[in-house]
Amino acid sequence: MSNVWWLWVAAGLALAIVEVVVPGWIFAGFALGAVLTGLLLLTEIWPAGWMGAGTVNQLLVFAVISLLCWLVLRLLLGVRKGQVKYWDRDINEN
Q1: Domain limits of the chain?
Q2: From what superkingdom does this record's organism come (predicted)?
Q3: Distance (Å, rounded) from C-alpha 67 to C-alpha 69?
Q4: In 41-73, which positions are buried (b, 16+ CB within 10 angstroms) versus exposed (e)?
Q5: 23-78 pLDDT, tens digit each
Q6: Is the C-alpha dihedral spanning 46, 49, 54, 55 positive or negative?
Q7: DSSP string, 49-66
């Protein structure tokens, strides 16, 4: 099961391409999560002692890593304070 690392990396690159086409930082966390999951499998840092390399476990690790990456990206690239402009009057009023 550890020879499927390249599938995770390919999926991450595909999600990165989707992120370029669909802006909004929606797929960036998933792309990073997939690439990092593939790299974990490649370098065999995989926590095989307490968690096997089965498909369900790979998906669980992918979900956790993707969530963490998305949260970090949201903190770094998210909405800044004062970024939203509220209009309190209409420009057509005299």
Answers
A1: 2-77
A2: Bacteria
A3: 5
A4: bbeeebeeeeeebeeebbeebbeebbeebbeee
A5: 777 899 999 999 999 998 888 776 555 456 688 888 998 999 999 999 998 888 87
A6: negative
A7: TTS---HHHHHHHHHHHH
Which pTM value belongs to this model? 0.75
Please give the single-letter amino acid code of residue 15: L
Number of neighbours of residue 25 by Cβ within 10 angstroms: 14
Helix H or strand E encompassing 45: none
Distance separating the N- and C-terminal Cα atoms of the chain? 71
Q: Which amino acid is at 62?
A: F
CA-to-CA distance for 34 and 11, rounded, in angstroms?
Answer: 6
Running DSSP on this structure, what letter comes out for residue 78?
S
Give one DSSP letter per residue of 3-37, joined into a string.
GGHHHHHHHHHHHHHHHHHS-SSSSHHHHHHHHHH
